Known about the structure:
Chain A is mostly beta strands. Chain A is 0% helix and 50% strand. The chains are: A mainly beta, B mainly beta.
Amino acid sequence: GAVVSQHPSWVICKSGTSVKIECRSLDFQATTMFWYRQFPKQSLMLMATSNEGSKATYEQGVEKDKFLINHASLTLSTLTVTSAHPEDSSFYICSARDPGRLAAEQYFGPGTRLTVT
Amino acid sequence: SQQGEEDPQALSIQEGENATMNCSYKTSINNLQWYRQNSGRGLVHLILIRSNEREKHSGRLRVTLDTSKKSSSLLITASRAADTASYFCATQAGTGGSEKLVFGKGTKLTVNP
């Protein structure tokens, strides 16, 4: 149980275009999901907290107009990278906590590798 | 901002040996968690230790927490080549279900067969 999926697993896009990444909780409902980005050989940096039915909470320094987050249902959150540039190339990972479990652990998706050319 | 700092940044050992990774943090926490990441993959939760706990075991994993020193260690005993991965500690400050995790920089472990 507690499986989180992401789609696509990798994407290559041209500079200036937008890319949408989906994060789904497959066997539980997640009122809160988290979006991270990870540069090569570095740690995960939290970008934003996605709240079902309300606006996302962005971390300091993350442009909300560039990284659009929509959490329209209890099992789906999307991250749209708008007007992508090569510096947006990174590994994007989402996570969610299963509120049906007592533990505070989060379940992570497999990640999406974005390459902007 | 990142809170956890892992040490060492990289560790290379032989199969069968024990691997110890350390993590330090700066502020008060509710719990500390260890995650594993295989290259280019998502993270897998390994173990969680609460602030009122000092030691926890899970299989070949042993985690300690010293809140007075704001540090934790992860010990992997009898390591295997399949343990090769990056290991991250992450702290959680609040008790709410939506409380975010703050990750350290990670330790890259290589277990040589």
